[in-house]
Write a structure and sequence with these properties.
The protein is 38% helix and 26% strand. The protein has 10 helices and 10 strands. The strands form 2 sheets. It has a 6-stranded mixed sheet with strand order 6-7-8-3-9-10, sandwiched between helices. Strands 2-1-4-5 form a 4-stranded antiparallel sheet, with helices on one face. Helix 3 (93-100) packs parallel to helix 6 (137-149). The longest helix has 16 residues, at 167-182.
């Protein structure tokens, strides 16, 4: 579904990505793990056109989308849930969801998507008129995911969805990600919580200072000695 070839991104004299290659097959959960500053967010931002790439190609469903406008990329079915959730705190839950579905002009289809989001996230349905800024961190993450689903993604990219959340909430968020995937949405997930990510991933990549240094199935990477020492805190 998504293919990245030789992706390089420079920020001034800093090489954030150094020619990475990645494949994201349709229907799978793929995770990209690594420490802060490894280039994980830069990878996702490059895919949706928010970061200018230096060299390389990005293909989506066989089409070259390198350098395309972000709005057109979103309309094609790629949606990013950014790090920190980036909900609009002064708007209601409903208004946040409306913004997520801004590309859909057919009211019937929009209403069907809204109903689907409310089914996946019953708490949002109960609080459609509530200001988003009054939500807890976990509830805001649910809203960010719901807002993304309003755009009807074929490929959902998640940037640190567990960041700053309590362990019980993290477990719930990852269960929701699996549910979304089972509904037919391909997921590209980046996470510092490597254990949680690899446990649900079909395949994973380990990124270090702009280079992919390891790759394999989630199970393989969980059992890899280097991954266990560096990212799982297990000797």
């Amino acid at each position: 579904m998504l293919k990245i070839e030789g992706l390089t991104v420079n920020y001034g004299g800093i090489k954030a990505l150094k020619g990475i290659d990645m494949d994201v097959p349709e229907g799978k959960i793929i995770t990209l793990v690594g420490a802060n500053g490894a280039g994980k967010s830069t990878t996702l931002r490059s895919v949706v056109g928010l970061t200018k790439i230096t060299s390389g190609k990005i293909y989506y469903q066989g089409q070259n989308i390198t350098g395309k406008n972000t709005v057109d990329i979103v309309r094609s079915g790629i949606v990013l849930v950014p790090e920190g959730r980036r909900i609009f705190p002064n708007l209601t839950v409903y208004e946040n969801l409306v913004l997520g579905g801004y590309c859909e002009k057919n009211k019937k289809i929009f209403d069907e998507r809204l109903e689907h989001v409310c089914t996946v996230f019953p708490r949002l349905k109960e609080r459609l008129k509530q200001k988003a800024g009054t939500f807890s961190g976990g509830e805001q993450q649910m809203l960010a995911l719901g807002r993304a689903l309003m755009a009807n993604p074929k490929l959902l990219m998640l940037d640190e969805p567990s960041l700053g959340l309590a362990p019980l909430i993290v477990k719930n968020i990852f269960e929701i990600i699996q549910t979304i995937n089972k509904s037919g949405v391909t997921v590209l997930l980046i996470e510092q919580n490597a254990k949680a990510a690899l446990e649900i991933a079909d395949y994973g990549y380990v990124l270090e200072t702009g280079n992919i240094v390891l790759k394999g199935s989630g199970v393989e990477l969980l059992s890899n000695e280097n991954v266990r020492k560096a990212y799982l805190g297990i000797a």
